[in-house]
Amino acid sequence: MFAPLLLFLLLSQDYTLSEKQHALYLMHTGKTGAAIERYQEICKKEGPDFAILHQMAISLMKQGIKKDPESKLLAIYGAGLAKSSSSLEILQEGLASNDPQIQLASLLFIVQIGDDYSDDLLLSAMSSDFLSTRMEASFHMAIKKHPHAVGHIEALMSRLPPYFIPFFPQLFAILGTKEAMGVLQRLLNDPSPQVRIEAIHSLIQTGRDDFLPLLRKRLSHKSYGEVEACAYALGVLKDSFSIPALKKLSQDPADATRLAALKSLYLLGDPSAQKEIEGMALKKDLFAIFALGSIRDSEGVLASLIHDSNIQVRVNAALGLLQRKDKRCLPVLKEILIPDIRDLSFQPRFSLGKTHMAIKVVSGTGIKEENPFIDPNLSLSMREAFLTEMLGLEEESFLQVATIIFDAKQNDLVPHLIQLLETLKTAKTIDLLKEQTQKMGAPLIRDYCNLSLFRLKIEGPYEETLVKWIMLQKGQELIKLRPLLPAKERPKGSVYALTPEETSRLLIESYAAIAERQDIKSIDLLLDALKNGNEKNRYALAGLLIKATE
Fold first, then answer.
1. Distance from chain centroid for Cα 413
2. Which of 73, 285, 352, 492 has the fewest beta carbons closer than 10 A?
3. What angle do CA 216, 217, 218 make, to 5 degrees?
4. In contact, 318 and 306? CB cutoff 8 Å
5. Residue 341 burial by CB count (10 A; 0-12/13-18/19+): exposed, middle or buried?
6. Residue 479 phi/psi, 5° resolution?
7. CA of 286: how far to CAs of 225, 265, 371, in Å?
8. What SS3 class is residue 360?
9. Which among 105, 111, 177, 179 is positioned nearest to 144, based on CA atoms?
10. Residue ranges of the alpha helices (H) in 29-148?
11. Contact 64, 96 (CB under 8 A)
């Protein structure tokens, strides 16, 4: 008597299976709206099925990766947002593209997934036709300490012209294996002074004091940059045997060499070295001014320089005070963060031996446009880094700066500022965010603050407001990307190394926040955007759909 019931259940199961297959078929043939409608019909009958949604999202991104370059890049971005091993197939196809930008974007997201298969894809990236891809892959192989990294990186280095070799010592130092350190030792004896300097700095970064005897011998070399680098390395690596030689170099006529020796003597406990460095700073040596930021009890000298008429002196003194967590830096930092008619841009400046750094200030749009070495994206990243450093100040001072940025409607800093405020998550921070959700004439600030309160799970109308805003933006193009900075110039901890611009970034962050909830309501919102929103957004939304259903 159970046979008819069993037959009915089997037929129902087959019917359900064919419905799901049909939904997948519709998605595969590019009928996204119809596929989602069919899935929604299935949901009404038997509830949500995350497995089928997952397959539909993968199918959609596979379509994008086979289309025009813009669609390919958006599909890559979607696969990256998914952060799932199931999206590696799309990223692998992007890595095989003949477009270097698509290759780099694919590689960036591959390394973020970080499973065994992504390690294999790193190896395949080393065979790219584009040097930029191979260099990026080399960097990530070194970071991950890939077992085949030394051989592949050394082979790449041997095929390149000599002027590329200075990029490689840091990679072997990061790897740190016996084989890698053997290559690094050879680079210390390279004919090029620049290669030798980079090799010395690689030893500093990895704390290789076993190379101290070799570094001591190099203090007598004729290359100013190499002597400067060695002098500094001996102090960082705590080589007290070098104190007599460093004292001699502290009288060197070359300012950079003298400063390197003084910095090392300070690190080795010589109190007189600080007075000498302060003396150089008072003579407006920018490298010495910036160096005071890492020297105790230097605040008085730095504070005396922040009123100087020379903006280069003012800015470097303020950044030194910022390192010392001294709020007297705030007036000048406002000049840095809030542009005015001078249209200031900021670039790092290094000494010949790469031991000293200062900030170079460039003003005037015309000058910047004519100078190929002035990168506005790097300048913005530096301003974001300065803002991050301000977290070390008292909360009241940081919130004062945040209010100034909001009041000036400094939109380029708002996304990063919101991230920093979320890390504080104090009562005063939340009050400021609530206050700014009512700010007149600043929709980007209002919407970002509302998003932040939603992410912080603060009680209030923030989810409802966010959903309404997203629904209004459905026709907006989702992704407009800033160029990718070189690996060494990317801010640490950056959420988006490929950063969507302004409102497009707000929209993607809003969808991502919704996807993080991983509930039925958020999935329905993503499905609605996929079905009724801008077609260009579908690939990124597909990635977020995977994130919401895993």
1. 15
2. 492
3. 90
4. yes
5. exposed
6. -120, 120
7. 17, 19, 22
8. strand
9. 111
10. 32-46, 50-64, 69-82, 88-95, 100-113, 116-125, 131-143
11. no
Q: Which helix (H) or strand (E) holds 532?
A: helix 520-532
Look at residues 423, 467, 418, 462 and name the one whose alpha carbon lies nearest to residue 444: 418
Give the span between the Cα atoms of 59 and 78, in whole angstroms. Answer: 12
- Please choose, from the candidates 53, 17, 62, the residue with its C-alpha nearest in 3D space to the C-alpha of residue 35: 53
For residue 148, what are its two tokens?
Answer: 């085949």
Residue given tokens 């579908």 in the structure block: 538
Query: How high is the pLDDT of residue 418?
Result: 96
pTM of the model: 0.84
Cβ pair 509, 415 in contact under 8 A:
yes
Nearest-CA neighbor of 355 among 222, 226, 206, 238? 226
The Cα–Cα gap between 174 and 8 comes to 64
CA 97-102-105 angle, to 5 degrees, is 135
What length is written for the chain? 550
Model pLDDT, residue 50: 86
Q: Low-confidence residues of the chain, pLDDT below 70?
A: 1-17, 364-374, 475-503
- Mark residue 152 as left, alpha or beta (left: phi above 0; alpha: psi -120 to 50; beta: remaining): alpha
CB 259 within 8 A of CB 356: yes
**pLDDT at residue number 443:** 87
* CA distance linking residue 35 with residue 33, whole number of Å: 5
CA separation for the pair 330, 322 (Å, rounded)? 8
Here the tokens at position 259 are: 């400063």
Paired tokens of 427 = 């009562």
pLDDT at site 494:
39
Both structure tokens of 212: 């101290």
Which are the contacts of 115, defined by CB distance < 8 A and separation ≥ 6? 85, 88
3-state SS, residue 495? coil
Tell me what pLDDT residue 477 has: 64
Cβ count near 412 (within 10 Å): 15
| Count of beta carbons in the 10 Å neighbourhood of residue 262 | 30
Domain residue spans in the chain?
392-516
Rounded Cα distance, 476 and 95, in Å: 28
Distance CA 166, CA 173 (A): 13
Q: Does residue 431 contact residue 412 with C-beta atoms inside 8 Å?
A: no
End-to-end CA distance of the chain: 41
Q: Cβ distance 200 to 233 under 8 Å?
A: yes
DSSP state letters, 400-458: HHHHHHHHTT-TTTHHHHHHHHHHH--HHHHHHHHHHTT-TT-HHHHHHHHHHHHHTT-
